[in-house]
Amino acid sequence: MTKFFDTNALLELREDLLKEDFFLISNISLFELEHIKTSGTKDEETKWAARKVLHILAENSNKYQSIIYSLDLDKEIEKYNLPKTPDSQIIVTVIDACKANKDIVFITADLACKQIADSLGLKTQYPKIIDDDYNGFIEVEFEDQQLANFYNDILVNNINYYNLFINQYLIIKFNNEIIDKYCWTEEGYRKINFQKVESIHFGKITSKDVYQQIALDSLKNNQITMLKGPAGTGKSYLAFGYMFDLLEHDKIDKIIVFCNTVATKGSARLGFYPGTRTEKLLDSQIGNLLESKLGDRVEVEKLIDEHQLILLPLSDIRGFDTTGMNAAVYISEAQNLDIELMRLALQRIGEDSLCILDGDFSHQVDMSIYAGSNNGMRRVSEVFRGQPYYGEVTLQTIYRSKIALQAELM
Known about the structure:
The chain is of the alpha/beta class. The chain contains 15 helices and 17 strands. It has helices at about 5-15, 25-35, 45-60, 75-80, 85-100, 110-120, 145-155, 210-220, 235-250, 275-280, 285-295, 295-305, 340-345, 375-385, 400-405, and strands at about 1-5, 25, 65, 105, 125, 135-140, 170-175, 175-185, 190, 195-200, 205, 225-230, 255-260, 310-315, 325-330, 355-360, 390-395. The strands form four sheets. A six-stranded parallel β-sheet has the order 14-13-15-16-12-17, with helices on both faces. A five-stranded parallel β-sheet has the order 3-2-1-4-5. A four-stranded mixed β-sheet has the order 6-7-8-9. Helix 2 (about 25-35) crosses helix 3 (about 45-60) and helix 13 (about 340-345) packs across helix 14 (about 375-385). The longest helix has 16 residues, at about 45-60. The two termini are about 50 Å apart. About 35% of the residues are buried. Mean pLDDT is about 90; it is low at about 265-270.
């Protein structure tokens, strides 16, 4: 099977094109991508995607062939009574290419284009796009016999009946009550038990629900964990509680916070902050976060002075390497990183360090350049999902206050 991608499929797939051994495109798509990347009518996300695709194609010319649209094909457009548009030009290019290669499958992310191609006898497919609703767990409601089958057959024989990714969680319900929790691993099912986290700074961390429980389990069992969810669900509380538990029990030597101090979307910027780099960071959102979790600024400054806490803006991250530091790296407000910046941040993580990403790319992205398919946090989920050292959990319940809960409806 030889895949022939149209422009919309190229925009949707981007890096996933590199997984293909070889594919075809039309030069019409190249013209469209070149126009999109500088268009005044396209949003920033679409323009970024066009630039990304062109970059990938330029660096991987051996992976594809561009089929030239011939003026002779104008007759084919007239033959099928189609308007002359980029879509119709690409479709008749595919039809012409099929004369020499019957195994071509036309991949399009445009429903109307697919319907036209289907009506003209082309073999078509939608591009396989990774599900953006991945939570890191699935919940299954069992009836009596299903529950018996699970414990007597599926669990005993380690059958991945629900097609779980490695380190994805299975939450089992019976009569609408949660009765059990498992994680699918390289060795099969692992039962989830209560995870104790306790530190001087945070006291005893007790999970308030099953989602916080599996989040703590992921933190304890994976080198990198992504915690997602709305404000007030406990993402930073669990992350800092876990990191300080490790720090105070000498399991790590320091906590390193990578921060990208982006002004909150829609807010007025206050301008220049005086002081050293650390003082400026403590006067920003990351300082507010640390003070709220640790009690006051004096305690935060004490930890910094003792080199147990390092604040590092992502603007200064190039060349940094945690190898040999035995550290926990916390990437705060991770939704405010694009793919390139997130890649750079994760490339700083050495084998002796762990990493926690905390954010909400669904609702809390503060700049358009970090939105949509250019979002680094979203891309981490797509690329790392299923790796044996990666876990991801979307926390579900807002506990901060009744006001915070109601505000989520705004």
